[in-house]
Amino acid sequence: MYLPHFGLREMPFSLTPDVDFTYLAEPYQAALNVLLLALDSGEGFIKITGEVGTGKTLLCRTLLQRLPRNTVSAYVPNPRLSPQEMLRALSSDLAMRPGRQRDEHDLYSAVETQLLALAKRNKRVVLCIDEAQALPPETLESLRLLSNIETGKQKLIQIVLFGQPEFDDMLGQPSLRSLASRMSFSARLSSLSLADFESYVRHRMTVAGWRGPDVYSPAARYILWMGSAGVPRRANALAHKCLMLAFGQGGHRVSAKMAWAALRDDKSLLRTVRPILAASLGLRFSARVST
User: Fold this and answer.
1) C-alpha to C-alpha distance for 100 and 104, rounded to whole angstroms
2) Does 282 map to a domain?
3) What is the CATH number of the domain that holds 176?
4) How many domains does the chain have?
5) Three-state SS for 121?
6) Is the residue at 8 inside a domain?
7) Cα–Cα distance between 163 and 183 in angstroms, integer?
8) Which end of the chain, N or C, is surrounded by fewer C-beta atoms within 10 Å?
9) Are residues 146 and 220 in the same domain?
10) How far apart are CA 145 and CA 254, in angstroms?
11) Same structural domain for residues 206 and 286?
């Protein structure tokens, strides 16, 4: 692979969310600030939405790392669970040992007892659920009931839901209006601006071990930004292809031609991006000539 060629310790553009590569661009820092503020305020439900690949899972893992020391965290990456399965998953993260035959009512009572015990020890409990749009309606209702557990001063569990935009549509259903009304804090992850995209690419290369000048030329970065629509997951896939092309040619610089070649692998994306890029690059070139 190209790691020794570029003097890298690890893959800079892996599609697996890795908190070591976290780059808090403006929309991500804003979302993280909302999360920390809402949790500190004692809110029961917080919602983060964003398109596929915008970094929700990485933001979730970053949040889990930054929670205060007195916090007991639970994480559900695959929420396509029944109410009973959700309670069982939560009880496991709360260091409980529920018997296999316990029904939903028994599990709920056991979790409530554990939450009260943790509160007496000044412990906060935060449950983070990824891919929230996959939650069955009955499980969402179960989570709403779980959030009702509280002392006279505080919620005993705070729930953070990370989901795709269709999660908002789910919450618009009449049957979930009670849950939707409790989402007092929310944030939406947006795509990276060109400036953030350029810093993002540079940051990931640096974390991976690169110590030379920028590998990606300004034109290549612009093409990749347009081609990925500023979505980090798409950007990672394209940037990785570019490094492979540069390695194959024995160079250490990604040119605009290589960026175009990386885009050509996705025919549907190329058809969408080509006219926009051509017009945009033409305008940029004309501006340079005129100045």
Assistant:
1) 11
2) yes
3) 3.40.50.300
4) 2
5) coil
6) no
7) 13
8) C
9) no
10) 53
11) yes
Nearest to 161 by CA among 3, 28, 39: 39
For residue 115, tell me if it sits in a domain. yes
> Do residues 183 and 197 both lie within one domain?
no
Q: Name residue, tokens 């080509």.
A: 274
| pLDDT one digit per residue (tens) for the chain, 291 residues | 899 999 999 999 999 999 999 999 988 999 999 999 999 998 889 999 999 999 999 999 999 999 999 999 999 998 899 999 999 999 999 988 766 657 888 899 999 999 999 999 999 999 999 999 999 999 999 999 998 888 777 889 999 999 999 999 999 999 898 899 988 899 999 999 999 999 999 999 999 999 999 999 999 999 999 989 999 999 999 999 999 999 999 999 999 999 989 988 765 555 555 555 555 555 454 444 333
CA 135 to CA 250: how far, in whole Å? 48
Structure tokens at 48: 């983060």
Query: Which residue range forms the structural domain that includes residue 224?
Result: 192-290
- Which amino acid is residue 18, in one-letter code? D
Helical pair 104-120 and 83-93, crossing angle rounded to 10 deg: 30
The tokens describing 73, both together, are 């965290």
18 in a structural domain: no
CB 158 within 8 A of CB 44: yes
First to last CA, the chain: 42
Q: Does one domain contain both 236 and 153?
A: no
